[in-house]
Amino acid sequence: MTILNDTLNVLQDKMDMIKISDQENLCLVGPVKLPIKQGDFSATFNWYSWLKVDAMESKEEVIASITNSRLAFGQQSSALVYGDFANEDDALIRMHSICHTGDIFGSQRCDCGYQLHESMKMIVEHGCGAIFYLADHEGRGIGLFSKSLAYLLQENGYDTVEANQALGFEDDTRSYEEAIRVLEALREKPVTLITNNPKKLEALKAHGLLADHHVPLWGGMTDTNRFYLETKVQKSGHIKESTLNS
Known about the structure:
Number of helices: 10
Shape: globular
CATH superfamily of the domain at 39-49 and 76-137 and 174-236: GTP cyclohydrolase II
Distance between the termini: 52 Å
């Protein structure tokens, strides 16, 4: 595929190669202006997306390969950035795992959609921050089809941890390494994490990226997700306190 020079000039200026190993890079694309409206809430974010590529591939080769890469049959992650993210002293971030049912359909079996939309509002009200939307995290890393099987087990008395384990998975197989590499490329200063999940806190602390507290995000409880939220606390160690000292 031949790419015109004008096209290359526009695109390559918005691409950044982030080394993750001798064999692989993350190709980060952005920012793209993304106006968002949800009910009464509206704001314009800067949107980034990234793709794992061979370390030897140039930006031009990545662009030329996309028509044959069948990217629509996989999923790519994103970041929504608000404010002067690189330079502000205090920034909120959310590492949000994709939830097809909660984020898109508004499912009340979980609190994921609530957390995503509330995080956007919190970041805009704070004035600076980013949401990392992690596409390979569906069902705590088991994928959408496997999640549908886990939901069937949950309808027959299993909790979320028991259902994943009954299917042969660990309770939580998610990795935050790629998102942290992108975060490091976008910002060098510490961040404050919007989360109830201690595993996310530890992942960032291991990279020296976390301030000495987090911001909890509880809410959206319904009769249909009460058991799910209680399991998060009792079996996955989710935190209810407002601060976590380092």
